[in-house]
Design goal:
Layout: E1 3-8, E2 23-24, E3 27-28, H1 29-43, E4 47-52, H2 56-64, E5 70-71, H3 88-102, E6 108-112, H4 121-133, E7 139-145, E8 155-157, E9 163-165, E10 181-191, E11 207-211, H5 222-233
Parallel strand pairs: 1-4, 1-6, 4-5, 7-11
Antiparallel strand pairs: 2-3, 6-10, 7-10, 8-9
Length: about 240
């Protein structure tokens, strides 16, 4: 089984400038994802790790990490590095580059998000098994239980200025409403068949979700870094590859 791990990062970030290489507990944020990718590859032969970025600064930071299994030959095209370009195009572009360079097709593509680094080897292995067990499934991604439920306590504005529930339903309690999840962006796993069709997003009619059984959140605001740094410095996170 051949696996491609993609790590796609842009140089620009409006919320937190340079967040992908911002120091977190004395290491650049991108280190935690790349280090995890190498540990996964070490126990899963046939796995390749490729970086996609348009930023020379990010490449220099990755070089200085001395991670032997991370390929940084690819240069992301400028049109795939804008605020509106989306990530799927960058993954597809990197996949085509890696397959041409390695002269092989990959059975599975695992995309790891740098800003959501709380993941485990067990998460990926179980997700891969779920994807393989559902022969028609095209992909699977990580989720967490949602704090709000669109059937019960989430509203949206109507055209007349009033509001309505996001999802229609006659439920008297949140517990009675259908279970919903937050996409936590930690990882996405695609089968090769996914890329035979021109999907514009990760959600298809044949998409699975893996509910991670632990803390998982995205580092998007400055306070998120402070929170994570506190947890790391106090050794409150039981993740082998984020230390």
């Amino acid at each position: 089984m051949s696996i491609l791990i993609t790590v796609c990062v842009r140089g620009g970030s409006k919320g937190i400038p340079g967040k992908n290489i911002k120091d977190l507990n004395n290491k650049p944020l991108i280190y935690y994802t790349l280090n995890f990718a190498e540990k996964f590859a070490e126990i899963h032969p046939g796995t390749f790790i490729y970086l996609s970025t348009e930023s020379k600064e990010i490449k220099e930071v990755v070089k200085d990490l001395n991670l032997s299994m991370v390929n940084i030959d690819h240069n992301r095209p400028p049109e795939l590095a804008t605020d509106t370009s989306g990530k799927l195009g960058a993954i597809r572009d990197l996949k085509e580059f890696a397959e041409k360079q390695q002269k092989q097709k990959f059975n599975y593509i695992i995309d790891l998000d740098v800003t959501s680094p709380l993941r485990s080897i067990d998460d990926l292995e179980k997700s891969l098994e779920m994807l393989k067990a559902h022969e028609e499934a095209l992909n699977i991604f990580s989720v967490s239980p949602a704090n709000r439920n669109p059937y019960f306590n989430m509203v949206e504005e109507k055209g007349d200025g009033y509001v309505k529930l996001v999802k229609e339903g006659n439920f008297l309690s949140r517990q009675a409403a259908p279970v919903v999840y937050d996409m936590n962006a930690s990882f996405y796993i695609f089968s090769s068949n996914f890329f035979k069709r021109s999907f514009s997003g990760a959600i298809t009619e044949k998409t699975l979700a893996y509910n991670v059984p632990h803390l998982c959140f995205d580092l998007d605001e400055p306070i998120d870094f402070e929170f994570m740094e506190f947890l790391l410095s106090k050794d409150k996170l039981n993740f082998e590859f984020i230390k």
